[in-house]
Design brief:
By secondary structure, this protein is α+β, with helices and mostly antiparallel strands. It has 12 helices and 9 strands.
Length: about 280
């Protein structure tokens, strides 16, 4: 995740019409008219919309007053795109914001840290973006029509919750498929369609989340952390942690220790994220 820019308290009296080659999340504070195809659709203040790279974005003030809005421009990683897919983020479709205070505070926290040289800034931004996705699009993801029609959706939801609740377990695909009475190929397609990520990717993410908590909050050795997170090989754990987190487990622990109080806000956001899966 790379944050390219954050703009607060923007005002615009004219229409915006463009195809920008980057992802953008807009928060409209005042009424807005969004052009969708050949139709003009009115939305009240407190509306959000997220655009993918190159997606047309056309909107204008809905009344005689200037449009008030804020936005974040960013470049997502493959993991970020998979996460957005798991949330069923409706690119280009405006959504009502249920918790405007939390969204506003998160925007301002990100703006305050965007120029920081702190070692945890990149991680803070990634976690904050995920919090925004959960806050804005979480309810719509739960109500997504495909979810109701998805075969074995209840069992898949239960499985995913269990994966994040018990990262140490040996999550054997063969055993899961036997329990669900489906083939490996069909299970792979169902899980990917339901959550936007594979079961293996969720297993890895659950273990790394648990590992990060243990590294930050305990003095357990890296080897013990690996064992507590279901890894039989220390070297494999360290290699996977570095691949997905951008640093070794020891480096991650040192950064957490060096940050002191500055990491508290990021830690609280991480806890909020983890509640989504437990």
């Amino acid at each position: 995740m790379k944050i390219n820019g954050i703009e607060l308290n923007c005002r615009r009296g004219s229409a915006f019409d463009g195809d920008i080659q980057e992802y953008q999340l807009y928060i409209f504070r005042s009424p807005v008219t969004v052009v969708s195809g050949s139709s003009d659709v009115f939305f009240p203040g407190g509306t959000a919309v997220i655009y993918s790279s190159g997606q047309p974005r056309r909107f204008r003030p809905a009344d005689r007053h200037p449009l008030r809005y804020e936005y974040i421009s960013y470049k997502p990683s493959s993991a970020d795109k998979q996460y957005a897919a798991s949330m069923n983020v409706p690119y280009g479709t405006p959504v009502k914001i249920s918790d405007r205070v939390l969204v506003s505070n998160t925007f301002r926290s990100m703006k305050a840290r965007i120029d920081s040289k702190d070692k945890h800034t990149a991680e803070f931004m990634e976690i904050s973006m995920r919090l925004l996705l959960i806050t804005i699009f979480g309810e719509s993801a739960e109500e997504h029509p495909s979810a109701a029609a998805m075969p074995k959706q209840a069992q898949l939801n239960e499985l995913r919750n269990a994966i994040y609740a018990d990262p140490m377990r040996d999550w054997s695909t063969d055993k899961i498929c036997r329990d669900l009475c489906i083939s490996r190929t069909y299970f792979y397609k169902l899980y990917l369609s339901a959550f936007g990520v594979t079961c293996r990717q969720d297993v890895i993410e659950s273990r790394l989340l648990h590992a990060a908590s243990l590294l930050a909050e305990t003095d357990m050795s890296v080897s013990s952390v690996a064992e507590k997170c279901g890894y039989v090989s220390d070297s494999y754990f360290m290699r996977q942690f570095r691949e997905h987190r951008g640093c070794t487990p020891s480096e991650f622990r040192r950064r957490c220790s060096a940050d002191g109080d500055s990491s508290v806000q990021g830690e609280n956001i991480m806890k909020t994220l983890k509640k989504r899966f437990t």
